[in-house]
Design brief:
heterodimer; A: about 500 residues; alpha/beta; Gyrase A, domain 2; Rossmann fold; 4 domains; seven-stranded parallel β-sheet; five-stranded parallel β-sheet; 18 helices; 20 strands; globular; B: about 475 residues; alpha+beta; v583 fold; Enterococcus faecalis V583 fold; 3 domains; four-stranded antiparallel β-sheet; 15 helices
Chain lengths: ~500, ~475
């Protein structure tokens, strides 16, 4: 094995591009590991941890591109280094076709497209605050996809936005739908009378797609970012977004989605709700429902919102979405009957953080014991080692320990695929629970990514899977559903339903 | 304005970051523009904070500076000997291009030009003697820029040399520049052979009096108007001065014939100007200088008022930071080399001619100059991209100098160091390239981005003043 490193001075690429390049390199024959990163201190630490920190990297700076490769031979390593240039050229080629000028800044862009009204910002967190501040100064609303933005910067930005009648969605806002346009990781949903405010990205995706799949639609879906509802931020975006939906003639029903807000923020929200014309459906995951339209789960909130909007319950879908019906019972019993002795645990391998939380809540709700999670909110025990499941386990594969230096699991399925096979080989495992999230920005062919692993797994265990998405998404929910069903997975119509089925199987087997 | 107004407008998105988001927006047919964002240059957090907090104050100052620059009216009013007109000029003083530099640190071409200058001046008879004198401490050196003067390449101005005199009609200030010697073996590239000195003597004895009489007879020539026309004719008046030289020739020729009783001298002068496409460079440069100098010393302004190189260092001055130079190493230009030469032969960037870029011309106006796009990648769209990029760091758009292809949009004018740092975009300069050895001359022409260091230092320097 040899380790070689090279510095490209003054080259800048965003981390996603670089990670994709690194992934391509790692797939080359004879390459054991590869990293392509900007030369920041943090990145050098990552390289050191991966044993890819060669001496020439010591003196690198933030704007240097570092390429490290561990390979069988010098020749292979050299070939990999050359491949980097080609892969990066491809990226640059798409950014600049040699004809059109691509503006280098927000101001430059506003010269090209006057009248722009929203800045979608996904630059590295430490720069995002300045970029967002400039956008607000220029009178643009902001969706801040970037994470790792300091809390005080968030407060500053939101206060400034509030005083100017502008909205800052985020930081760490993964998804929004404004005027029917999906932003970030959003789905292609119908337009309709239901407006959403969500402090949770996957929560917003689940509710908006379920609403759409139930035949209703979304007026606006505003993401706030997860920190908005802590007391330091005070729910500025949540409240301003709520006010905007109240003003919006198209919005007849409002859905609020969040983890439990800090109490003073919740008080402010309650105060606001007392004065508004529209019915409000709320799901504050992990708290007792409030009011006539308070819900415990995302699917319930979507179902409830559509019911309120239509004036009556959508027919024939309650059980599919919410469970508790005969069909659910039959499915659970069939799968339980097919298990061999000793198989008794559920392993939930989730890509959506909110789905992992919902699994914890649902498992607790149906009385499943001995549950462990790497993102436990208190109902489950804290999983000491996220790489090793214990009894009934929920793993959020999108949490930091899995995503440093690699794309989010909604994009890169490789970790999850490997984990599915590992869990299926555990003789105590009865069922594997998955969420598949579709939409813009997500992996374009999740069924193919999962196919081999699911086929292999279902020869030993059951695989239960929800699919968040619509038939108009780039991946097409129906096609994904058919493919995964073909591979042997049991497909549920909501994350709630999938969690219930998987949890009920484990509960039954556990008491046997 | 309530947030809900957004719901009644068409969503128009500026996407800054992941280009896949832009692709999704394109897919659903939403109006979106991608920004090719890059992180800001590495400056201290403290200076960034100060600059941010003083943004309004800086903006007010910059508006004032740009008003002065855009209103500047450079005119050629005559010729004179350096010692008679240049402020502070004295018999043992030699002016040079770029920021201040001592003999010991001067590059080859600049040393060569000093040697040639001393021989021309009659202070030495051999190169060895001149070199000894140059290093003796008897000779003083100062930047042209500090004496209302600019000079191309080595930019050597000797006390007895004749210089163009330019006046800013709007503000009354004056600037100076020597006359252009043409191509081949010339002093500005550090050549000092006898033919170089002979040509300088001819310029002194024939060219100078003929032009002096001519201008005296015809009155001032409006250079701003002439440069604006030249831009419409394919010049950017830095690396290409063919149209401007031709226009000047048309203005001068009848008057030279009328003024000059010695017809042989008149022919020589006309042939000299006609044979040198760069004759006008030594007028476009002081025209920019006299325009920019009027806008010096406006407190708090982040606009660059001088940007120049001496072949060793690259230096800039801001309007808001007085006489302070912010200096870093000069880079070797990315050039097309004349046959037989490579970048190995090239001297680091040299000359005051980047005063043109500082005033919204040269590289900033390269979209107006399709004939020289081979320097910037070969296609006109490359040239257009360069100019469009310079709008990102410009404090204003010119009201007179225009780019025909861009629908007569004013050239990007006034380099704002705050924009340079925060957008991480360096000014783009087109330039000639000197051989690193004295006496060889020009080896190529090309482009380069300005050195990073001086801009970072200027940003920190401005912040330090603002904090006081």
């Amino acid at each position: 094995m040899v380790v070689v490193g090279r510095i490209k001075k003054g080259a800048y690429f965003d981390s996603v591009t670089l990670m994709n390049v690194a992934r391509e390199l790692s797939h080359m024959e004879g390459v054991a590991d590869a990293a392509v990163v900007m030369g920041t201190n943090e990145n050098r630490a990552i390289l050191a941890a991966a044993d890819l920190l060669t001496p020439e990297f010591e003196a690198s700076g933030d704007t240097d591109l570092l390429i490290g490769v561990r390979a069988d031979t010098d020749g292979i390593a050299e070939a990999a280094l050359i491949a980097v240039d080609r892969l990066l050229e491809n990226v640059q080629g798409t950014a600049d076709d040699g004809e059109a000028f691509v503006p280098k800044s927000l101001d430059g862009a506003l010269d090209v497209v006057p009248g722009a009204n929203l800045a979608l910002i996904s630059v590295a967190g430490r720069y995002a605050g300045d970029v967002a501040a400039r956008a607000l100064d220029r009178g643009l609303h902001v969706m801040l996809f970037s994470d790792n933005v300091p809390l005080e910067t968030e407060v500053e930005l939101k206060a400034r936005a509030h005083s100017r009648g502008l909205l800052v969605m985020g930081p760490d806002c993964g998804t929004a739908i404004i005027n029917g346009v999906p932003l970030g990781f959003a789905n292609a949903v119908n337009r309709g009378p239901i407006g959403i405010i969500a402090a949770s990205g996957t929560g917003l995706q689940e509710v908006s797609t379920l609403v759409s799949n139930l035949g209703s639609g979304i007026s606006q879906a505003i993401g706030t970012g997860g920190h908005d509802v802590v007391s330091a931020v005070g729910g500025i975006t949540f409240l301003d977004g709520l006010e905007a939906l109240v003003d919006d003639a198209e919005t007849e029903v409002i859905v609020l989605v969040s983890k439990p807000p800090d109490s003073e923020v919740l008080d402010r929200i309650r105060k606001k709700l007392a004065k508004i014309r529209q019915p409000v459906v709320s799901v504050f995951l992990g708290t007792e429902p409030e009011g006539p339209n308070g819900c415990r789960t995302l699917a319930e909130a979507a179902f409830r919102a559509v019911t309120v909007a239509l004036g009556s319950e959508p027919e024939g879908v309650r059980g599919l979405l919410l469970g508790g019906d005969d069909q659910e019972k039959e499915t659970v019993e069939r799968i339980v009957g097919e298990r061999s002795s000793g198989q008794r645990y559920v392993r939930a391998l989730m890509s959506g953080g909110t789905f992992a939380s919902e699994a914890e809540i649902v498992f607790a709700g149906i009385g499943l014991n001995d549950v462990h999670s790497n993102v436990s909110s208190g109902r489950a025990a804290k999983l000491d080692d996220p790489l090793r499941s214990v009894a009934n386990t929920i793993v959020d594969l999108g949490s930091d320990e899995f995503t440093v230096g690699r794309p989010h699991p909604m994009i890169d399925y490789s970790l999850r695929v490997k984990r599915i096979v590992d869990e299926a080989n555990d003789p105590e495992v009865a069922v594997i629970l998955l969420d598949v999230v579709l939409g813009y920005g997500s992996n374009l062919d999740p069924a193919s990514e999962l196919d081999d692993a699911v086929r292999e797994a279902v020869s030993k265990v059951a695989v239960v899977c929800s699919i968040t998405g619509t038939d108009r998404d780039p991946q097409n929910r129906r096609a994904v559903r058919d493919a995964l069903e073909g591979a042997g997975a049991v497909i549920a119509e909501s994350n709630l339903s999938a969690c219930r089925i998987a949890g009920l199987i484990a509960r039954k087997l556990g008491v046997k | 304005m309530p947030v809900s107004d957004l719901f009644r407008q068409e969503l128009r998105v500026v996407n800054i970051g992941l280009s896949s988001f832009k692709e999704s927006l394109d897919e659903v047919g939403a109006a979106a523009v991608q920004v090719d964002w890059r992180p800001p240059m590495d400056v201290s957090d403290e200076s960034r904070r100060i600059i941010r907090e003083h943004a309004a104050q800086i903006e007010v100052a910059n508006v004032k500076v740009m008003d002065i620059i855009l209103r500047g009216m450079p005119q050629l009013v005559g010729l004179a000997r350096a010692i008679d007109v240049i402020p502070g000029m004295k018999p043992n003083l030699i002016l040079h291009a770029g920021p201040p530099i001592a003999w010991e640190r001067m590059c080859g071409p600049m040393r060569g030009a000093v040697i040639g200058g001393l021989i021309y001046e009659g202070k030495a008879t051999t190169p060895d003697e001149a070199e000894g004198l140059a290093a003796s401490g008897e000779i003083e050196y100062a930047p042209c820029h500090e004496h209302s003067t600019v000079g191309p390449m080595a930019g050597i101005v000797m006390p007895s040399m004749p210089v163009f005199v330019l006046k800013n009609e709007e503000f009354g200030n004056v600037a100076y520049c020597t006359m252009n010697e043409g191509l081949g073996k010339v002093l500005r590239y550090g050549a000092f052979a006898s033919e170089v000195i002979e040509k300088l003597r001819w310029m002194d004895s024939i060219l100078y009096p003929v032009l002096d009489d001519t201008i005296a007879n015809m009155g001032p020539i409006d250079l701003k108007n002439l440069m604006a026309q030249a831009l419409h004719m394919g010049d950017e008046v830095h690396n290409r001065n063919r149209a401007a030289t031709s226009l000047l020739y048309r203005v001068l020729a009848p008057e030279i014939v009328r003024s000059c009783s010695d017809s042989r001298a008149a022919v020589e002068v006309l042939e000299f100007i006609n044979g040198n496409d760069h004759f006008f460079l030594n007028l476009s440069m002081p025209a920019c200088k006299v325009t920019l100098d009027a806008a010096r010393d406006v407190p708090d302004s982040s606009v660059v008022i001088a940007m120049t190189r001496n072949g060793t260092d690259f230096g800039i001055q801001l309007s808001g930071t007085g006489d302070e130079w912010f200096v870093g190493p000069a880079d070797v230009p990315d050039a097309l080399f004349f046959p037989g030469y490579t970048s190995e032969d090239a001297n680091p960037d040299i000359g005051d001619s980047s005063i043109t870029e500082t005033n919204g011309l040269g590289g900033f106006a390269i979209a107006a100059s399709p004939a020289i796009v081979q320097f910037v990648g070969g296609t006109t769209s490359d040239a257009i991209r360069y100019t469009l990029e310079m709008y990102e760091i410009a404090a204003a758009e010119n009201t007179v100098y225009q780019i025909p292809y861009l629908n007569f949009r004013g050239t990007p004018t006034g380099i704002d160091v705050v924009k340079v740092i925060t957008k991480n975009i360096l000014p783009f300069i087109d330039t000639g390239v000197a051989h690193r050895e004295p006496g060889v001359g020009q080896v190529g022409a090309g482009v380069l981005t300005a050195s990073e260091e001086p801009f970072k230092r200027a940003f920190e320097g401005l912040a330090a003043r603002l904090a006081k």
